[in-house]
TrEMBL record:
Organism, as annotated: Gillisia limnaea (strain DSM 15749 / LMG 21470 / R-8282)
Residue span, DUF5916 domain: 236-813
Gene3D superfamilies for this protein: 2.60.40.1190
Protein's name according to its UniProt entry: DUF5916 domain-containing protein
Alphabetized Pfam families for the sequence: DUF5916 (PF19313)
Source domain of life: Bacteria
Length: 815
């Protein structure tokens, strides 16, 4: 009796305390939902009238994520969800009620592009580890989107085959989803325990709601999932699918026509319920997007994003430690530049392939029941040769510019405590013959304390480069501590690399030989204040040093501001003061540097409400160098027009100018020549689409980039030992004019049709023009006229990919 009284009194006190703090009990613990087993699957058509949905338990009481913090959903906009399952898939019915259906935004888009529409979202974490989950989204227009999530990072290049349909009536809109087990990876257990989160976006109200409360002031969003129980004794089908493709293309350039036919196949095989093998056999990347090539005047190579689906889908394990730059595979042969310069007397270079062909690639990845992630990646590129011909004898000479090469990655990633992980990764490149090989090993940790108020993360990486008769070992590390809870946050970081650290066989590393220190502090809000939905104010500082010899290269301090208003108008800016900076890379000779004077720079930007038919992004920045004539300024304008729910265009203009910058001109045996260089760049791009529906669309992509670099006449200089420059009489040798005019034009026009789940046909027309000259006196319009005098390359291609599920084939033969 006494115990019951104590329990009663404690309950009253807890209730009074909750009321006093105005805390919703839904925020205090993880919500749970128990899925029901069914014997007959619902028909996925968006009309929730199948018998399986009658009497099924409801998940409801969604809470606000944006703009508020945990406010109950509006009575007029309640959300209800039901979940059932069988041996093939889980099925979800979602009821999105509204009081004004006509206000629902329904922009038609293609897969993985949400646009201006309401959406319903399901996050499934089959290991309930607070870190890795798969995201499924369906919009109020019926567009599907899916992503692989690692923490708060979303990878929408990840695509799996699942189904979703919608319907409408005068009470709201409804979604019906089928997520096959083939789209998920999970441990083999009698009963599954999955992390589950569901979200609803009401775009015209600018409000987002979640099923389980998300405390934005602490940890990661993925740590605030609820639980999905009840999935028991499932016997999932064999996970084996094939993606055969065929393509035909015709290419026309300088009067030459070439037609090619290609066929090949990708496939996925579920080795176990948790591990999947992906392979590409006879790969075809003919329809990958153009790279955004620019005039590169700096000491480093230009880096490009990955456009090949195989190297972007499901690669979250392999990108740990930033040791994997997939563009290395099938990149320019390591002997390409040498072959360009090598031809001897009476000899001409008649062929020098710019890319090494990929023969095949595989990846195996998954996670065990004990949260150990295991990944293995391997790719092989074939030998590439340059061909020289003797103009006298007519004989041919062949030079191997890239031998047969093998690229591999092995990753182990142990996660624990719902929020932390330690990882070991190794990348390895082996080239046949007496060529360079590379090996890198990294140890990583990412650990939160129990209250998620602090994060400790770091890396230790060792590189090893083997050249004929030479073995070079390097080391790099970083360590970071961050406050991750509350409005006020702060952090410190240290980055280090010795002078021999080199990961560029399979990674991307511009700089080494540094010893840098960073700090930052910020204040942010999680609930609206006045007209502001959210804002963040940050102050930061950096101090960079050379490791050998130990000397300071620069220090900067600055601040930034970011804000979003209730009407979805966003704005912000930043300002940074930099000390004198010693640049050890611009001189292109080891141990030398040039000093750039201290400077002050800033930028400001705005972004208007994308829900409106017309919206604008704009950014302007300026930097002035003290005690120097150097200055930089940049302008970016990007208006977007949504004419209706089917037609939209985004135009972008980028304009930048740099005046009087001390820049590298030439490297001489006992001298390094610099000059005052002015550069000007203009980039115009246009993205447009006409969506017939969510499965068919016409897409336009256009880009023109022009840049000119012009050195002041007679103002050349010699670089001195302490980073200063002195006047130098430097007559420019023939054929070495450093002035340059660069212009490139790319246009893609495509029709895409998703004619079946996982299957697609794309008809693509593209053209391109390129011109590079030393006519730096030409302005943009004159340069564009000269560009159109060059030969136009045109290409027309058709590519068809068809998805085949082994289980469907088996069932056909059984019947």
């Amino acid at each position: 009796m006494i115990f019951k009284n104590l329990v009663f009194i404690a309950s009253i006190l807890i209730f009074i305390n909750l009321k006093a703090q105005d805390i919703d009990p839904n925020k205090l613990s993880k919500k749970e939902y128990s899925a029901q087993r069914i014997t007959e699957a619902p028909k996925i058509n968006g009309f929730l009238n199948d018998p399986v949905w009658e009497g099924t338990p409801i998940a409801t009481n969604f809470l606000m994520v944006e703009p508020g913090d945990g406010n109950p959903s509006r009575e007029t906009h309640r959300t209800q969800v039901k979940i059932v399952y069988d041996d093939e898939a889980i099925y979800i019915a979602a009821y999105m009620l509204v009081n004004e259906p006509d206000r629902i935004l329904r922009q038609f888009t293609q897969r993985d592009n949400i646009g201006q529409a309401d959406f319903f979202q399901v996050d499934v974490n089959t290991y309930n580890d607070g870190e890795n989950q798969t995201r499924f989204i369906i919009t109020s227009a019926g567009t599907l989107a899916d992503a692989k999530m690692s923490g708060e990072n979303e990878d929408y290049s990840y695509n799996v085959v699942w189904e979703g349909e919608i319907s409408y009536d005068d009470k709201g809109w409804y979604a019906e989803l089928k997520i096959p087990y083939a789209a998920l990876r999970f441990p083999k257990k009698e009963e599954q325990l999955w992390g589950l989160q569901m979200n609803r976006k009401i775009t015209h109200l600018n409000e987002t709601y979640s099923w389980n409360y998300i405390d934005k002031s602490v940890g990661k969003i993925t740590q605030h999932n609820g639980l999905l129980r009840g999935i028991k004794n499932i016997d999932p089908p064999i996970r084996l699918s094939f993606y055969p493709y065929s393509s035909i293309e015709t290419d026309q350039f300088e009067g030459n026509n070439q037609t090619n036919f290609n066929a090949g196949m990708d496939f996925k095989y579920g080795i176990t319920d948790a591990f999947t093998l992906d392979a590409t056999l006879i790969p075809d990347f003919g329809q990958t997007a153009f790279d955004n090539v620019e005039l590169n005047l700096g000491p480093f190579e230009q880096a490009f994003g990955e456009n090949r689906a195989f190297f972007t889908e499901g690669t979250e394990l392999f990108t740990k430690g930033n040791l994997f730059y997939s563009r290395r595979i099938g990149d320019s042969p390591i002997g390409f530049n040498q072959a360009q310069r090598e031809s001897i007397k009476n000899e001409v270079l008649i062929e020098n392939p710019e890319k090494a062909d990929l023969l095949n690639a595989i990846k195996i990845s998954g996670r065990t029941e004990n949260d150990l992630g295991i990944g293995f990646f391997n790719a092989i590129t074939k030998e590439t040769r340059a061909i020289f011909q003797d103009t006298v004898s007519g004989d041919f000479r062949y030079k191997v510019t890239e031998p047969l090469a093998n690229y591999s990655i092995v990753v182990l990633d142990q996660q624990f405590n719902q929020n932390s992980s330690i990882s070991l990764i190794n990348t390895n490149v082996v080239r046949e013959g007496r060529f360079r090989d590379g090996n890198v090993t990294g140890f990583l940790f990412d650990v939160f304390n129990n209250s998620n108020s602090f994060n400790f993360n770091g890396e230790a990486k060792m590189s090893n480069v083997n050249k004929p008769g030479q073995n070079i070992t390097g080391f790099a590390s970083n360590f970071e501590i961050n406050r991750t809870k509350g409005n006020f946050r702060y952090g410190v970081k240290h980055d280090f690399a010795n002078e021999t650290y080199d990961i560029n066989d399979l990674g991307l590393n511009f700089r080494n030989n540094y010893n840098n220190f960073f700090w930052n502090t910020s204040y942010q809000i999680f609930e609206p204040i006045g007209k502001l939905n959210r804002f963040t104010i940050q102050i930061f500082g950096n101090h960079t040093r050379r490791y050998k010899p130990d000397l300071a290269t620069g220090t900067d301090v600055g601040g930034s501001f970011f804000a979003v208003m209730k009407n979805r108008f966003a704005f912000g800016g930043s300002a940074v003061m930099e000390s004198d900076f010693k640049d050890f890379f611009e001189p292109r000779r080891e141990g030398h540097y040039i000093t750039y004077k201290k400077s002050l720079g800033g930028e400001t930007w705005i972004s208007s409400d994308y829900r409106k038919k017309f919206a604008l992004d704009a950014r302007i920045s300026y930097r002035d160098y003290f005690d120097s004539d150097q200055e930089n300024y940049r302008l970016r304008l990007s208006p977007r027009f949504r004419f209706n729910d089917k037609i939209s265009f985004i135009y972008s203009l980028n304009y930048s100018v740099t005046n009087s910058r001390n820049s590298f001109v030439a490297l001489k045996p006992e001298d390094i020549i610099f000059g005052n260089r002015d550069t000007e760049s203009v980039e115009n791009s246009l993205q447009g689409s006409y969506n017939f529906n969510t499965k068919q669309a016409l897409n336009l992509s256009f880009r023109n980039f022009w840049s000119v670099a012009n050195f002041a006449k007679g103002q050349f200089k010699s670089l001195q030992d302490k980073g200063e420059v002195t006047a130098k009489n430097y007559p420019i040798p023939p054929n070495e004019d450093p002035n340059v005019n660069f212009n490139i034009w790319n246009l893609d026009l495509s029709y895409s049709w998703q004619f079946a789940p996982g299957s697609e046909a794309i008809l693509l027309y593209r053209n391109s023009i390129f011109n590079l000259s030393d006519q730096s006196q030409l302005g943009y319009e004159e340069s564009l006229e000269r560009l159109f005098e060059q030969s136009l390359r045109q290409n027309l291609s058709l590519r068809v990919v068809y998805f085949i599920d082994y289980n469907n084939i088996r069932n056909i033969f059984k019947s």
